[in-house]
Amino acid sequence: MQMNTSLKQQHSHHFDEGNPLAQKKILLATLLTATMMIAEISGGLIFNSMALLADGWHMSSHMLALGLAYIAYRAARHYRNDQRFCFGTWKIEILAGYSSAILLMMVAVMMGYSAIERLFHPVEIHYNKAIFIAIIGLVVNLICAWLLHDDHPDHSHHDHIHHSHAQHEHHHHQDLNQKAAFLHVIADATTSVLAIIALFAAKYFGWNFLDAVLGIVGALLVSKWACGLIIQTGKTLLDAEMTEPVVDEIREVIADLDRSIDIVDLHVWKVGRGKFSCILALQTSNTRLTPLVVKQALSIHDEIVHASIEINPV
């Protein structure tokens, strides 16, 4: 048996460079959201608007989520050289994204419950003041959404044009921590729009019920987004990456090396945005095959940043 690593060899296991630009933008968005959250919750209570109050609740959850995303970036950077993290600290960011998704789902449930209650027990709404605050909230949400929009500053994926999975590159390079923060802001912007529609409809057409109905619609939309993010981040946290295109690429590389090689064990998991580690155990009658040869063959796929190769004779 031959292996490509030695206990005496030391190398970095920090595979993700982080996202300092997103970190700065998220801090700014957190401060803006906190300010607007106080205004909307206060306005919803004073002016008796369920839609406005729901929007304020969303603001509170989004402020916490944005703060969590910021802390995750700081923590991942702070512990990047900590030897306890055997494959780097990138998953701190993924854990923050997962936690944000759980928080988003909880608020959606609370929002839906309150909207249903208000549907059966309507109260008087002070339309003009509520509309004014809802519009300000929407403006703040749009500013935060613009700040947190993922413009993909990492251009390394352009080097993958020779890969057969080019259509999956956008997914591979997503910053899930930033995406979680962005979804919180988009969810809040959506509820702001619904609140404005409901308030105008109630004021000019007397459709007071629409305030609660659109609150329910908003809760359903937010819960759907939360479910999608929970699935995506949960998949990464559980290392459920064996359906990724890179797995087939590894198999293709081995097949091209020598048809006599059998893959007896293969594990692939994500260690950074668009970056993977793999453990590969091979069995072959080719005595000239070495782990170094296999690693060099795999190096054409630069998303594979860490590989442990084991070769066993037949």
TrEMBL record:
Segments forming domain Cation efflux protein transmembrane: 26-238
Q: Where in the cell is it found?
A: Membrane
Annotated membrane topology: Multi-pass membrane protein
- Which SUPFAM superfamilies does the record associate with it? Cation efflux protein transmembrane domain-like
BP-aspect Gene Ontology terms: intracellular zinc ion homeostasis
For this protein, the parts annotated as crossing the membrane are 26-50, 56-73, 94-115, 127-148, 181-206, 212-231
Q: Does the keyword Signal apply?
A: no
Sorted alphabetically, the Gene Ontology cellular component annotations on this record are: membrane
Looking up InterPro entries in the UniProt record yields: Cation_efflux, Cation_efflux_TM, Cation_efflux_TMD_sf, Msc2-like
GO function terms (MF aspect): zinc ion transmembrane transporter activity
Per the record, the domain of life is Bacteria
Q: Which UniProt keywords apply?
A: Ion transport, Membrane, Transmembrane, Transmembrane helix, Transport, Zinc, Zinc transport
The record, for PANTHER family, names: PTHR45755, ZINC TRANSPORTER 7 (PTHR45755:SF4)
| Protein name in UniProt | Cation diffusion facilitator family transporter
List the taxonomic lineage.
Bacteria, Pseudomonadati, Pseudomonadota, Gammaproteobacteria, Moraxellales
